[in-house]
Design goal:
Layout (H helix, E strand, L loop, with lengths): L3 E4 L2 E3 L5 E7 L8 E7 L6 E7 L4 E3 L7 E6 L4 E6 L8 E8 L3 E3 L3 E5 L2
Parallel strand pairs: 2-11
Antiparallel strand pairs: 1-3, 3-8, 4-5, 4-9, 5-6, 7-8, 9-10, 9-11
């Protein structure tokens, strides 16, 4: 079972940046893909971005051009660099890892507000 721990959330003003980190408990070569979802208050969980084992990436239209997902295979860590943040990006962000099953982190809060 893969354990995931997110960090890096916080309060930021509109137009600002944050970088989220997701550390896995084992080698991320053992999973098919890792990525991020988010859930805003009163809304359903929304997929944000994914990165495959060879580095292929894909993004939701709502974050394309502003967010970048990367991976560090030595540190077993996936990052989500978030730039040009908007109030509508406010949500709890969850890291996931997909193998035969899908594993989730506990979430980290991102609040974009002036």
């Amino acid at each position: 079972q893969v354990q995931l721990v997110e960090s890096g959330g916080g309060l930021v003003q509109p137009g600002g940046s944050l970088r989220l980190s997701c550390v896995a408990s084992e080698s991320i070569f053992s999973v098919n893909a890792m990525g991020w979802y988010r859930q805003a208050p009163g809304k359903e969980r929304e997929w944000v971005a994914v990165i495959g084992v060879i580095g292929t990436t894909n993004y939701a239209d709502s974050v394309k051009g502003r967010f970048t997902i990367t991976r560090d295979n030595v540190r077993n860590t996936v990052y989500l660099q978030m730039n040009s943040l908007k109030p509508e990006d406010t949500a709890v962000y969850y890291c996931y890892a997909r193998r035969q099953s899908t594993y989730w982190g506990q979430g980290t809060q991102v609040t974009v507000s002036s």
